[in-house]
Write a structure and sequence with these properties.
The complex is a heterodimer. By secondary structure, chain A is of the alpha/beta class. Chain A has helices at about 45-55, 75-80, 100-110, 115-125, 130-135, 145-155, 175-190, 205-210, 230-235, 240-245, 250, 275-285, 330-340, 360-385, 390-410; strands spanning about 5-15, 25-30, 35-40, 60-65, 70, 85-90, 165, 195-200, 210-215, 220-225, 270, 290-295, 300-305, 320, 325, 345-350, 355-360. In chain A, strands 6-7-8-3-9-10 form a 6-stranded mixed sheet, sandwiched between helices. Chain A has a 4-stranded antiparallel sheet with strand order 2-1-4-5, covered by helices on one side. In chain A, helix 3 (about 100-110) crosses helix 4, helix 3 (about 100-110) packs parallel to helix 6 and helix 4 packs across helix 6. Residues about 380-413 of chain A have low confidence and may be disordered. Chain B is an all-alpha fold. Chain B has a single domain (about 5-255), classed as MetI-like fold. The two termini of chain B are about 25 Å apart. The chains are: A alpha/beta, B mainly alpha. The interface of A and B includes residues 101 and 139 of A.
Chain lengths: ~425, ~260
């Protein structure tokens, strides 16, 4: 085992008492440091059982599980779990404790002093955009579903565990919130570089979140363990292909992020500007719409010449909807935003909702073209040397992905 | 890391307006009780009492028997809480869960047996006196608290317990910080029931010479002295209602925040 390996499952099986067939049978898997491995499969396939054996919420019947070089069965389960973050779909915040108490539980059990816990709690709440002054004393029921799940995630992060287990963490939230939580989490993960095992039954989520995806069949058997790109372009058999579902090419849009394509600039006007000046801008630039922004540079409306009434004093309330995406959103999200925007372009905004640029359908098409190109190039050597290509290629792909991400980071200050 | 520290932390976090609704919810009962006691007092005071009645209905005697009654009820309640809550906790641990139906059945027998029969049987075995009465009352009142402790702990969302274990809380910490605090409202409802039962059944303690307000009622019936009978009955009822009210107030104060 190399130092690069964080979690290793060696022929792990789980047979529940009184049952004839094992829930998990002979699963072996190696998870590298800093990657998000998604276990995806139909419900009842044993993916959650597999995950829970890593922190010994369920004891394996046979096989060995190594975390960071030590056999988990050799450790005290309570101590072990304090070093492994745990997030569940039901969030599991304790309803009778404040947000701060919930988040500070693990550090407190680890014996941190009060000051250090308080500082850590504030830091973490900041990290997920919950203003500590406003939220630390709230009770869980005083938070929205999305906020609760954010607190659930930072509670798991509180003692900075190197490993996180996440069991359908965003499954109970509405699609919009889920999307935002996913983006937020990916942004966090970029900073934190945790080793994450992520369970979901939603293949689209798997593609979005995973560095690598394990498609599981009955008894947690691994059908294919590969990068999202490879899964989409080369499903190993019919079952996997079925599970991926229709529209694999559309799903590839989930693999690229908005910050990996070039942005355009919109013509900005302020809400206080006069319609006449907006009209002049439209004429000068030849654009067919300008984007109105508020005093914080947050986009408000797309305004076309038709919307403008020269008798009005300012641009408030004029124009059609401007849909926004974050730089971490996928191109799929961006396409969605474009389709519901009045101008056909999605506005890219930063954390605070301020204007950064726009993504248009042309840019999107170009990105798809590039993806096809790289896919074709990558697949060529495989047909020439099918025996040896597997190992190095599997390694090369996440590297490539990470490379793409960091290039994007350099682009976006 | 005890339940106590959690509680104080919560109080500090809670808004100061917590006491006002408490007062509003619980102010009626003391007024009703005071009115009933006053009415009884005025009524008895307006009567010309004979010797027998005077012997029972004087302040000294009334205070003594009421004191006996309160102390026997309070002792019962205390013992019941200690026994039933610890038994309930044990019977909800995974290793002992299978025992729960048997123990509940036993407690059921304790309550289903007519209280007077239970007391008399016990006195034949253990002799008469306050100690025997206490044992009988505890056997009689243990069921509601035991059943509610088990139910209260079992109704705690399994996901919360799993979350607690998943983030590395020890089994004891999960019990003290999650299961028990969240079970408190249900457990306390059982304690209130037990208290009222204990006060009522403690009137029977007089039959095995353990004192209490039952003496007044028995005297009133045997000697056909209605004022004595009614005073005993009113005092018993008032005591039961007072303790129930007190239980309600305490339950409200102890109730963990964040629950609906």
């Amino acid at each position: 085992m190399t130092a690069d390996v964080m979690i290793e499952l060696q022929q792990v099986s789980k047979l529940y008492r009184g049952q004839k067939t094992p829930a998990v049978e002979d699963v072996s898997m190696t998870i590298r440091r800093g990657e998000i491995v998604v276990l995806v499969g139909p419900s009842g396939c044993g993916k959650t059982t597999t995950m829970k054996m890593i922190n010994r919420l369920i004891e394996p019947s046979s096989g060995r599980i190594m975390v960071d070089g030590s056999d988990v069965t050799s450790l005290n389960p309570t101590e072990l779990r304090r070093r492994i973050g745990y997030v569940i779909q039901q969030v599991g915040l304790f309803p009778h404790m404040s947000v701060a108490t919930n988040v500070g539980l693990v550090p407190k059990m680890l014996g941190w002093d009060r000051k250090r816990i308080d500082a850590r709690v504030d830091e973490l709440l900041h990290l997920v955009g919950l203003e500590p002054g406003q939220y630390r004393h709230r009770l869980p029921r005083q938070l929205s579903g999305g906020q609760q799940q954010r607190v659930g995630v930072v509670r798991a992060l509180a003692a900075d565990p190197p490993v996180m287990l996440m069991d359908e963490p965003f499954g109970a939230t509405d699609p919009l919130t889920r999307d935002r939580l996913q983006n937020e989490f990916l942004r966090l993960q970029e900073k934190l570089q945790k080793t994450i095992v992520f369970v979901t039954h939603d293949f689209d989520e798997a593609i979005k979140m995973g560095s690598r995806i394990a498609v599981l069949g009955d008894r947690s058997s691994i059908r294919q363990f590969d990068t999202p790109e490879r899964l989409l372009s080369n499903p190993v058999d019919k079952t996997v292909a079925q599970f991926i579902g229709a529209g694999a090419s559309l799903k590839q849009l989930n693999l690229r992020r908005v910050d990996a394509v070039d942005w355009d600039e919109a013509e900005l006007v302020r809400l206080d500007d006069s319609p006449t000046s907006a009209l002049r801008r439209l004429d000068e630039t030849g654009e067919w719409a300008v984007l109105s922004v508020d005093s914080e540079r947050r986009p408000v409306h797309w305004i076309t010449a038709r919307d403008l009434d020269p008798h009005q004093d300012n641009l408030r309330g004029i124009g059609g909807p401007a849909t926004v995406v974050e730089p971490r959103a996928t191109l799929h999200d961006a396409l969605d935003a474009m389709l519901s925007s009045s101008s056909g372009a999605a506005v890219v905004v930063d954390d605070a909702g301020r204007y950064r640029g726009t993504v248009t359908i042309d840019r999107l098409m170009r990105a798809i073209g590039e993806m096809r190109e790289t896919e074709r190039r990558r697949d060529q050597p495989v047909s020439e040397a099918p025996e040896t290509a597997d190992g190095p290629r599997a390694d090369a792909v996440p590297g490539q992905r990470r490379g793409a991400r960091s290039a994007a980071d350099r682009q976006t200050p | 890391m005890s339940v106590g520290t959690v509680g104080s932390g919560q109080l500090a976090d809670a808004p100061p307006s917590r006491w006002r609704p408490l007062l509003r919810r619980h102010a009626t009962m003391p007024l009703v009780l005071a009115a009933a006691l006053l009415a009884t007092y005025l009524w008895v005071g307006s009567l010309a009492l004979d010797d027998i009645e005077r012997r029972s209905l004087n302040a000294g005697h009334l205070f003594r028997v009421t004191g006996q009654h309160v102390s026997i009820s309070a002792m019962t309640a205390l013992l019941v809480v200690v026994i039933a809550v610890s038994a309930g906790v044990l019977l909800t641990r995974p290793a002992l869960r299978w025992l729960a139906p048997f123990v509940t059945a036993l407690a059921n027998i304790g309550q289903a047996t007519p209280a007077i029969g239970l007391l008399v049987l016990l006195s034949i075995w253990l002799g008469i006196g306050a100690g025997t009465a206490l044992i009988g009352l505890v056997a009689y009142a243990v069921l509601p608290v035991l059943r509610n402790t088990i139910a209260g702990i079992n109704q705690v969302d399994r996901h919360l317990i799993e979350a607690g274990r998943g983030i590395g809380m020890s089994p004891l910490a999960v019990l003290l910080r999650v299961e028990l605090p969240l079970a408190v409202p249900v457990i306390f409802a059982g304690v209130r029931t037990a208290l009222v039962l204990a006060v009522g059944v403690a009137t029977l303690a007089t039959f095995i010479d353990a004192g209490g307000l039952g003496g007044l009622i028995v005297t009133g019936i045997k000697l056909q002295r209605d004022p004595v009978l009614i005073t005993g009955a009113v005092l018993t009822a008032a005591l039961a209602l007072t303790l129930d009210w007190l239980g309600g107030v305490i339950a409200d104060v102890l109730r963990p925040p964040g629950l609906d």
